[in-house]
Amino acid sequence: MGATYDDPCGVARALDVVGQRWALLVVRELLLGPKRFRDLVHGLGGLSPNVLSQRLKELESSGIVRRVMAGPPVSGPVYELTDEGVALEPVLVALGRWGRNRPVTATRQMSVDALLLALRTTFNPAVAGDLSIEVDLRIEDDRVSLTVADGQISMRRGPSQHPDATITADVASLRALVYRGIEEPGVRIDGNKAAVRRLLAALR
């Protein structure tokens, strides 16, 4: 794992595990479900495969990530979060809420998982009210089921089983739709559009 802070504080002990550069972003990419190595490389566009291999090795040894064999349609090794890794989700949501007030200097496009985490950080349960909706999000090559119920938002990788609506978009178009209210040509909304409008208001 390398050098530690040698500090008994809980924050320092946590950073001993996930404080390395890229470590928390690897966790971010796995919050919604398992991914293949090449999909992690794609989601973390500024990260070299060698550095990713090192981060995954460290996170595995710390009990945050595990490597498993997936069945069809993936059929091969994938990486997924352990229970310890899943427990970092509220930490990442809180960091995202803090970071959204910082200036945007990045020139690279967000990954799908980064955008979905951003939606978690901007979701306003007071605006959502009694909204109950399940949406099948088709973002580029990803399928994600997004559900709002009882003032809570949840997401998981994979298609929705009984969607009230389907949103098809790329990352840039979905960001424009959610945060600027701009429905670009690359966005398609099918199903309960009134409920989708309420969802967008709660995310904005």
Describe the structure.
With 204 residues, the protein is α+β, with helices and mostly antiparallel strands. The protein folds into 2 domains: 10-94, Orthogonal Bundle (Arc Repressor Mutant, subunit A); 109-203, 2-Layer Sandwich (Nonspecific Lipid-transfer Protein, Chain A), CATH 3.30.1050. It has helices at 10-18, 23-30, 37-43, 49-61, 83-86, 89-99, 112-122, 125-128, 171-180, 193-203; strands spanning 65-70, 76-81, 133-139, 142-149, 152-157, 165-169, 188-191. Strands 5-4-3-6-7 form a 5-stranded mixed sheet. The chain has a two-stranded antiparallel ribbon with strand order 1-2. A hairpin with a 2-residue loop joins strand 3 and strand 4 (142-149). The longest helix is centred in the first third of the chain and has 13 residues, at 49-61. It is globular and about 55 Å long. It starts with 9 loop residues before the first helix and ends with a helix. The model has no long low-confidence stretch (mean pLDDT 92).
The beta-strand count equals: 7
Secondary structure category: alpha+beta
Number of helices: 10
- Going by CATH, the architecture of the largest domain would be 2-Layer Sandwich
Shape: globular
Helix and strand run: HHHHEEHHHHEEEEHEH
Poorly predicted runs: none
Question: How would you sum up the major sheet?
Answer: 5 strands, mixed
Q: Could you give me the name of the CATH homologous superfamily of the largest domain?
A: SCP2 sterol-binding domain
The CATH topology of the largest domain = Nonspecific Lipid-transfer Protein, Chain A
